[in-house]
Design a protein that fits this description.
about 325 residues, alpha/beta, Rossmann fold, eight-stranded mixed beta sheet, 11 helices, globular, binds NADP nicotinamide-adenine-dinucleotide phosphate, binds 2-acetamido-2-deoxy-beta-D-glucopyranose, oxidoreductase, SDR_fam
Length: about 325
């Protein structure tokens, strides 16, 4: 066998070596991938998933609908959401799936969405803050906040606060933030530059937004621990979704090659979210960061409780949180 390989032209040998190494990496990734094994049913439970019309959010919705939950898709684009809703109902055979409009990049929209939920829903068992965007150009929203930062962090921050009362009433209940390992790609968090007031870099904004989700998870957990509401965050893995839709075309070309080789499918990428939403074994875990369905390490910065507290307070100011909107 070896002598046969050695007799092949050098380029073929190198080619085989590359294929072999890639194959091993792929097998390693498949073997270490976390899969939710819980068979938990969710009849009688209500779930809200933001950004559920595509990607990880949509696969999460299909899975939770299959378990019998009442699933509310919180989406900004009602046309896309209506198509997704039909898909989710068809695949899950659960008709208890609804669309409500939510644009996280508008504080007004978040308040309107929350008010409608509080009026129409008797309970809320699981809130999944999944929506997110990356690699978009600098833009301020109607609220004067940086758009990526508001979509990923400030919008979910306000939403969580507004729905906390209902979550408490429905306890035991769970809050889940879909963050990212990208939270660890910044070594600082400048609270004076949360909305790119001083400088702008699209990557840094994304890292800031994902770090903010981890920090707020850490800060909120002890504040609500006695109420039976848990809050955790997660990294879904590198997942083949539309998240890079706004990236430059050279990036997309590289991604087109790498996606099938190294990236999880959206269904695989949804597993840690689903695990946190349903598994009995995490019922009493709170304030943690998960990856591949296991507790994982965060960056040192993401463990800084002083920074977390300051970020929380600054975020309250940016979303103009009123005393009656605070539920702890
Ligand atoms: N894919 C990865 O490799 C990866 C890695 C780490 C973390 N994540 C995180 O995983 C989460 C889900 O992303 P994905 O990979 O599934 O990406 P995706 O396919 O692009 O889905 C993102 C979802 O978020 C929604 N969204 C974006 N901005 C919004 C806003 N302002 N208001 C309401 N909804 C908004 C999108 O709605 P529209 O369709 O209407 O735009 C879409 O439904 C994100 O938080 C992302 O940061 C992903
Ligand atoms: C979680 O805590 C509750 C109340 O203390 C307890 O009844 C339950 O067994 C715990 N579950 C797990 C998986 O530890």
């Amino acid at each position: 066998m070896l002598s046969f390989l050695c007799s092949l032209p050098i380029l073929v040998q190198i080619g085989l070596l590359i294929v072999g190494v890639l194959g091993c990496i792929k097998i390693y990734l498949k073997m270490t991938m976390g899969i939710c094994t819980s068979t938990k049913k969710l009849s009688g439970k209500t779930v809200i998933i933001t950004g559920a019309n595509t990607g990880i959010g949509k696969e999460t919705a299909i899975d939770l609908a299959k378990r019998g939950a009442r699933v509310i898709l919180a989406c900004r684009d009602l046309k896309k959401a209506a198509i997704a809703k039909d898909d989710i109902i068809r695949e899950s055979r659960n008709k208890n799936v609804f669309v409500r409009q939510l644009d996280l990049a508008s504080l007004k929209s978040v308040r309107k969405f929350a008010a409608e939920i509080l009026k129409s829903e008797l309970r809320l068992d699981i809130l999944i803050n999944n929506a997110g965007c990356a690699t978009i150009e600098k833009k301020l929203t109607e609220d004067g906040l940086e758009v990526q930062m508001q979509s990923n962090h400030f919008g979910h921050f306000l939403l969580t606060n507004l729905l906390l009362g209902l979550l408490k009433k429905s306890a035991p209940s769970r809050i889940i933030h879909v963050s990212s390992v990208a939270h660890a790609m910044t070594k600082t968090l400048d609270l004076n530059n949360l909305n790119s007031e001083l400088s702008y870099n699209t990557g840094t904004v994304y890292y800031y937004s994902k770090l903010s989700q981890v920090l707020c998870t850490r800060h909120l957990a002890p504040l609500i621990s006695s109420s039976g509401v848990t809050v955790n965050c997660l990294h879904p893995g590198a997942v083949e979704t539309e998240i890079f839709r706004n990236a430059p075309s050279w990036f997309k070309m590289i991604a087109a090659v790498c996606f099938p080789l190294f990236f999880k499918s959206a269904k695989e990428g949804a597993q840690t979210t689903i695990h946190l939403a349903v598994a009995d074994e995490v019922a009493n875990i709170t304030g943690e960061y998960f990856s591949d369905c296991k507790v994982a390490k965060t960056s040192k910065l993401a463990n800084d409780v002083g920074l977390a507290k300051k970020l929380w307070e600054v975020s309250e100011t940016f979303v103009n949180l009123k005393p009656e909107e605070r539920h702890f």
